[in-house]
Amino acid sequence: MMELGFVTILGGVLLPLALLATLWRGICYSRIEWLLQVLSVGAYLALIAVAGAWLLAPWYLPYGYAILGVGAAGAAWFRVWRYGPRTGGRIKSGLTIASTLGMTAFCTAMLCWALSGHGPPEGLSIKLASPLKGGTYYVVNGGYSILINPHMKTLARESLSEYRAQSYALDLVRIDRFGRRAEGLWPEDPRCYHIFGEPVYAPCTGVAAQIEDQLPDQKPPETDRGHPAGNFVRLECGEADVLLAHLMHSSLTVVTGQRVQAGQLIGRVGNSGLSTEPHLHLHAQHRGPQQNFLAGEPMAIWVDGRILVRNSRLTVED
Q1: What is the pLDDT of residues 28-62, one digit of tens each?
Q2: Which of 18, 57, 156, 205 has the highest CB neighbour number within 10 Å of its CB?
Q3: Helix-then-strand count for the chain, H and E
């Protein structure tokens, strides 16, 4: 998830501020150009609000951009209305209009693509209880479009087909009342992340079919590519397998073959396996081959009656 943090800084902080500053300056050769600039900036801000992963910056920042955008558009319109459009630049005006039209079209198309992932595909799904309680949790990755859920690449690429079961997975972190997931931007101590050590509860009634408990927790951003799931519990819940991964070393409270009830404590969130920072990975699947259970077919999941996608927030009482 470190890559998402860097993308947030560039595409979610620096570029929006530059676009808002340009809009506020009101350098327009016509009122049409002003309108197109407003539309292009609005389309970009809507895109990052939906598809951006707000890790290093808080999730509510796009709302601030919306307020600044209205103010910048108003200031630009006032300049155009009071002083008139800039003159002496037909060629420049044409190029600006063409570029803003292109940006608006591109951002709108990408926004529609991202929004298309807010609804689950046709097929079987499973209703789960929240595996986390007593806080507010932010969905870093989730949904049914690759723009909002990088796990979807395992469904699209043949070379990753042995991991396709996780295509509809969720990655969850805990946030505090200020929207922060950690003490600091990217601390190396996993204990600085609010979700580290959080209790994990069985989201369904079933059998603990497979567990791993002895892998170490990594220091962010180190990862263990040899054990992608890290410490995990795989529950057989009816016809579905439910995987909870990246759990804390020696934290599991269940053993293989044990029957568990929904809401039963099964472990704690850690930072084991292929994980750049502490979070809980959750996915459901049709049962795959025993020798490679991640090769099963993915299933859409409902958590506490909701379809969760990137930027969803889940508040759960104890």
Answers
A1: 657 788 888 899 999 999 999 999 999 888 999 99
A2: 57
A3: 6, 12
Q: Can you tell me which residue has the tokens 């699209």?
A: 156
Contact in structure between 270 and 218 (CB atoms under 8 Å): no
Contact 214, 198 (CB under 8 A): no
- Nearest-angstrom CA–CA distance, 76 and 66: 15
Task: Return d(Cα 64, Cα 13) in angstroms, integer.
Answer: 11
Q: How far is residue 316's CA from residue 318's CA, in Å, rounded to a whole number?
A: 7
How many CB atoms sit inside 10 A of residue 52's CB?
25
- Residue whose structure tokens are 């819940």: 237
CA dihedral 265, 266, 268, 273 (to 10 degrees): -160
Cβ neighbourhood burial of 260 (10 Å; 0-12, 13-18, 19+): buried
Helix (H, G, I), strand (E, B) or coil at 303: strand
**Alpha-carbon span 195 to 280, nearest angstrom:** 8
Q: Which helix (H) or strand (E) holds 214?
A: none
Q: Read off φ and ψ for residue 82, nearest 5 degrees.
A: -80, -45
Contact 314, 137 (CB under 8 A): yes
